[in-house]
Amino acid sequence: MTAFYAAYRNETDKLLLRKKYIGFLIFGAVICVIWATVGAFSTGFMGTFGGVTVNLTPTPMGVLPLFLQIIVPLLIFMGVTDLITTEGGEHTMKAMATRPVERYKLYFAKLSAVITYAAVYLACVFVISTVLNQLLGRGLTIGEIFAALASYALTLPPLAVLAGFAALAALFGRSGTLTMFLLVVAYLAMNILPILFPVLSELLFTSYLGWHRLWVGVLPSASRLLHMIAIVAGYGVVFFIAGSFIFDRKEY
Amino acid sequence: MVLELENVTKIYKTGRGAEDISFALSPCEILGLLGPNGSGKTTTMKAISGLVQPTGGNIRICGIDAIIFREKALQHVGCLIEAPALYPYTTVRRNLQMAARFYPDVNESRIDEVLQLVHMDRYANDKISVLSLGMRQRVGLALALLSKPALLILDEPANGLDIEGMIFVREAVKQAAADGAAVLMSSHLANEIQLVATRVAVMHESRLLGLADMDEINESFESLEDYFLKMTGSGAE
């Protein structure tokens, strides 16, 4: 556990020591401020632009889809690319791979650091959007705030699976830029394919990124919930085991 | 024994690598791996430090099977393989602090100690990206020495160094051995090995061709180069 904790602290430090990750946190805060300011003058506005439904309600739930579907996945891709592909390419992976830590622990530490960053990012978005909503919007009840908090927390399992997928793919990458590009293309494809072939929406893990909507409010049937949990957990286990197996055998 | 290798083999898809390598290393010994580029020196060192998985053979570090129990075995190893692996976006001290987290006995005062040892204490708060090649090599050496390892692995440590830097590395290696470490050091320069090693292993075309004490070589051959040429069979007719 000491070795894992040491590796986890190092991987988290490595993300936070790069200015861009702090910059993206500030960027997220700015988006929340703009969103809340615009939303304050058009409360409840909802419109469709180019097929994308835009809800300018200045609440934590109003900003969540933008962060959940676009910004946080991109940050996850950037994190795993930096910690896996770029370190492999720049030969800095040796710095950790020659330390007394099992490879699977190191891999899990890298994944955990990226997921922690995503969680902290969403927590910041939640806090900022809630405070701004109380100041500029109609204000939320305690019940609504807890429901929003639960929704934010529920987004983490599918985001962890997305990180597992990205980390597995990053193990095959040779250049950070190319890996990032390919991950974005794959993510776009996984979001477009279910529109063209609806049967895929049940099978692709990216379809479950917005599953918090099903958990908060009227719950679907137990079998449906079980089915969703099984798919998300199944993908997670497969991605993690495959990734740690390949990382264990990877030569640096 | 600090290090025992038995028939260690690692062959890459290119057909190169290291084949059937066996030797052992005791405390206070400095074993010089001498061979041309591509002879298998780095591959052997990478196999010992867990960077590549051998396709055959056994490696034991301080009696621990290093292939199965990598984490436990690497507790006793400090290494500098190829170019030093440093994070350029942070400081010298932070690089050492990150490595130190894996060793419960390594604290800030040990970090200061190794920085002084490699004469980098003045640059502790400088970012790696602004350091020269020689300075980076010194930080790499500090990282290898940080945990007072029983086994010190140095792959071409004098690469890219000026004369002063090369003398400094020699002294640091001798000091580590005097403090009880077993040192495995590679070079393609016979002179570098001759000046520090107590034993020499000659590698050529992925194989270990000979292993002898430096004293024996000095008695029987004009120079280490002569011993190397005899072992590889490439001496003047």
Q: What does the model show?
A:
The complex is a heterodimer of chains A (252) and B (237). Chain A has ten helices and two strands; from the N terminus they run ααββαααααααα. By secondary structure, chain A is mostly helical. Chain A has a two-stranded antiparallel ribbon with strand order 1-2. In chain A, a hairpin with a 2-residue loop joins strand 1 and strand 2. In chain A, helix 3 runs parallel beside helix 7 and helix 7 runs parallel beside helix 10. The two termini of chain A are 24 Å apart. Chain B has nine helices and ten strands. In chain B, the strands form two sheets. Chain B has a six-stranded mixed β-sheet with strand order 6-7-8-3-9-10, with helices on both faces. Chain B has a four-stranded antiparallel β-sheet with strand order 2-1-4-5. In chain B, helix 4 crosses helix 5. The termini of chain B are far apart. The model of chain B has no long low-confidence stretch (mean pLDDT 93). At the A-B interface, helix 1 and helix 4 of A face helix 2 and helix 3 of B.
